[in-house]
Amino acid sequence: MKKLTALMLSSAMMLSLAACGGSASTDTASSEAASSEAASSEETATGEAAELTTVNAGKLTMSTNAAFPPYEMTTDSGDFEGIDIDVAAAVAEKLGLELQIDDMDFDAALLAAQNGKSDMVMAGVTVTDERLKVMDFSDTYAEGIQSIIVPEDSDIATVDDLSGKAIGTQRGTTGYIYCTDDFGEDNVIAYDDGLTAVQALNNGQVDAVVIDNAPAKAFAEANPGLKILDTAYAQEDYAIGVAKGNTELLNAINGALEELQQDGTLQAIVDKYITAE
Ligand code: GLN
Predict the structure, then answer these.
(1) Could you list the mean pLDDT of each consecutive 10-residue stretch along the chain, which spans 277 residues?
(2) Ligand 1 center to 43 CA (angstroms)
(3) Which helix (H) or strand (E) holds 143?
């Protein structure tokens, strides 16, 4: 887990660098600091956000797929929790909005944000060139790695060994896209979510599952007899997706993310869910 935490730290640094590069809300933190003296003349992040138009008035509606631990999952009592959930709640608070979470399949969660049915998608979403054509992305708030899960006695030891094998993925994910590109559609099975893909691996219906590293670790821990290969398939950046052209919301989200990064909230949330070994 150390490696992942280090990656998170480096992406938090990327976020701050990106923010220094001239985000529209770069001055909100300092204006807040000065607010006791100049409250009437300075606009705070919260003041700006109150004017945001969202899908449901007064709410920040987030589409997600809550089967992707530790980014989003459900508790035994049916509540949502995870890194994305906590970050979204903190962003919503900064914007003076109430967080509403809509749980659905991953591909539907992307579409919801694209089509303006949700304000944003947060689901460990990787920024890709293809997605950038149909939606806008916030600054990066975490990094992911595509990992390979196999049974402990598997003869698959490298990415190349996946050739000719049955590979389980989640529908609509980068794991699915990379694997179909590299090994052909006939060899790749798309499941509704990561949990179902891992169940198929347990049942011997597929030889490997390609999925993001953090959920891979959670699934491997919960399923004795499975292991994660040391070889990473691909390295990626996670960001919040919004409808193309929704610049007002995007700027507000980036301003909030920057403040959360600077005051340590972002790292505290990551540390809550990903413990260094
Ligand atoms: N990071 C991957 C993607 O964006 C998978 C995300 C997920 O399954 N929630 O495609």
Answers:
(1) 38 43 36 40 46 94 96 96 98 97 97 98 98 98 96 97 97 96 97 95 98 96 96 93 97 98 96 82
(2) 36
(3) strand 142-151
Whose CA is closest to atom 10 on ligand 1?
173
What homologous superfamily is domain 59-143+237-273 in, according to CATH?
Periplasmic binding protein-like II (3.40.190.10)
Domains 59-143+237-273 and 145-235 alike in fold: yes
Is the CB–ligand 1 distance for residue 124 below 6 Å? yes
How much is the pLDDT for 130? 96
**Does any ligand 1 atom lie closer than 6 A to the CB of residue 125?**
yes
Question: What is the C-alpha separation between 218 and 118, in angstroms, rounded?
Answer: 28
Q: What is the pLDDT of residue 67?
A: 92
Q: Does the CB atom of residue 144 touch ligand 1 within 6 A?
A: yes
C-alpha span between 107 and 197 (Å, rounded): 15
Q: Which CATH class is domain 145-235?
A: alpha beta
Domain boundaries, the chain: 59-143+237-273, 145-235
Q: Does residue 215's CB lie within 6 angstroms of at least one atom of ligand 1?
A: no
- Three-class secondary structure assignment of 8-26: HHHHHHHHHHHHHCCCCCC
Rounded Cα distance between 50 and 58, Å, is 8
CB of 65 shorter than 6 A to ligand 1: yes
Question: How remote is the CA of residue 9 from the centroid of ligand 1, in Å?
Answer: 20
